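tl;dr need the bound structure. longer version: we got a ligand (adenosine-5'-diphosphate) that a collaborator sent over and nobodys looked at where it sits. i said id run it. heres the input, straight from their email, havent touched it
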Amino acid sequence: DVADIPAIPEWLPDHLRESGIDSLYPPQAEAVEAGVTEGENLVASIPTASGKTLIAELAMLASVARGGTALYIVPLRALASEKHAEFEQFEQYGLDVGVSTGNYESEGGWLAGKDIIVATSEKVDSLVRNGAPWLEELTCVVADEVHLVDDGERGPTLEVTLAKLRRITAGLQTVALSATIGNAGELAEWLDAELLDSDWRPIDLKKGVHYGQALHLEDGSQQELRVRDGEKQTAAVVRDTLEPDRDEDGTIREEGGSSLVFVNSRRNAEAAAGRLAGVVSEYLDPEERAALAEVAEEIRDVSDTETSDDLADAVADGAAFHHAGLSRGHRELVEEAFRDRLIKVVSATPTLAAGVNTPSRRVIVRDWRRYDGTAGGMQPLSVLEVHQMMGRAGRPGRDPYGEAVLVASSHDELDELFERYVWAEPEPVRSKLAAEPALRTHILATVASGFASTREGLLEFLEATLYATQTDERGRLEEVTDDVIAYLERNGFLERDDGGLTATNLGHTVSRLYLDPMSAAEIIDGLDDADDRPTVLGLYQLVARTPDMYELYLRSGEDEEYTMLAYERESEFLGSMPSEFEDDRFEDWLSALKTARLLEDWASEREEDEITDRYGIGPGDIRGKVEAASWLLGAAESLAGELGLDCTPAIREARTRVEDGVREELLDLVSVRGVGRKRARRLYDAGIEDRAALREADKAAVLAALRNRRSTAETILENVGHRAPSMDGVEPDPDASP
Ligand code: ADP
């Protein structure tokens, strides 16, 4: 019973009961027995949707009740806001909850007084680099989805950050939450933690494979599906899920349910939603149709793009797609309508499996291979990933059990999928720290923030990582470490004398800016080559070719187009363009050019949907590129300042233009709250060219430029400090289209 949990705040048992939690799930009870509320370290490896969050909450609340501060580390920004919203329920008991995902240069002083803080591992790493003093006050740290230490990109940051936090703060309680993995014991050894390794689930999960006319489940049973002639497999499973179960006499025993379909690309997600809308449509009643029409309208209101239209069309028929290219507003509307059971099927890329809580009766893993550029071709997904997707099946309290199926197109594939995924154990998690790109960043940061001041000290610090726990070859880490020290020294980020290591001023700046040292070296190189007026395209291409920006891929046939563009605008590039005969380098250069032209288009006021069409991306991707460019240009500005270069104003202009998506002449107008790129252009074209002009402007002219939207016009005039912003009595312009 929840009243028997030791060391938690006295209001918590009642609060839990009010939220429908009367007793702990067995793994939660085990966690309490292991001392999670009494400050013990714990690694909990349990299936998706089995109540990991409550384990974290118990640990954090108990720690806060003892006067401490808790930090919850999430792997994705999207999860940070979700967890923050979840923990805000505790504010009614006087707790102060903060979230920090923003830019990487501050020490987040305002977080100092918080009781619970949610942040991504990158953010925490940067807080450590910036020497945030309040980190020493931490008493409890929770690492969510800790199996992601296996991820080559982001795993090392989580690993090093945990090691640093544990060193800064003696006696810090560490709670690590993981999906079910093969080697949770190694994680526990690394973190000196109790191990909780369980495969208990609140609702039964039956895994299986669909082949021919039937679902083949792992218990050996088969279910015949009601497939129509010519219907594809995924459509057939979705339809079968929608059909209510009836008794002999036709009365409904159980309502139909929803499906979640995992596919391997955004394009496939969109295409599948379009097709599945046709299946769902005939199962909707008039009430549901009306409610869905409203959601579709809200989706169209979020943005005026093709993606938005496609999504709204699918949603009107009860289907949706979900991927990282969607804007946040779209994602939230889809998730909510799916939880409300209005949307009956969502086709998604695996981002949805990474924690967003959207259970459904059936999960269909349609694609079990994914394109992988580095491996060159389609590669099978890991068992861990497939099991995490499958774990989304079944809603406790609503479904008798969940079903999760893969889709096989031949008898051989049916057997293969059973072997490979249904019966298989998830693979062990391995540290990816001993790779150069990871160590480049983390070694510089470790020295710069004072965790080590000699080569030996550095190696000793690295001993506290998961990598050291797992490896048998000590030599390997030493070797890479020496290579990396040499690289950092060559580029002027580190200095070495009589065995001591110190970061140079430049090195400190790079570490605080959270740049990959290789990005910094590339930027410095390019800026050295610039005169005092580099063009925006030149600057955008420079930051786009650093390892800190994901480039756009060239589609087939685009090589030629961008090669031509590269020669046309060769004089604008900063640093020397590789020759066409250096295949890989040249290809990378062109991809960066493509990304740069996208940014230039945006900063030249090209329409959003023209850009999404031109580059084959979603509106969320434009945002992503713009944010990355703005951060990197800000960093370039700091580096240029540090090095005393003359191009700082040009960099600043390139940055503000891309942030606001406008040409130079609109920069003043967009600084008025409520004035975005489109409104600024209309005002400017109406002869109102800057803030000062807007403050004094004729109100009828402003109203006409804002297409007769009275309340918008009033708000904007108020924001800019107009003498009399009221629009009462101002005549609308009949020619301005509303
Ligand atoms: P995950 O392990 O994927 O983080 P969650 O923590 O999100 O899973 O839990 C899944 C769901 O189970 C949540 O809706 C949560 O409210 C519910 N839940 C967790 N613990 C209990 C419990 N002891 N009793 C009833 N419901 C619970």
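gonna send this back to them w/ a short note. The mean pLDDT is 90.
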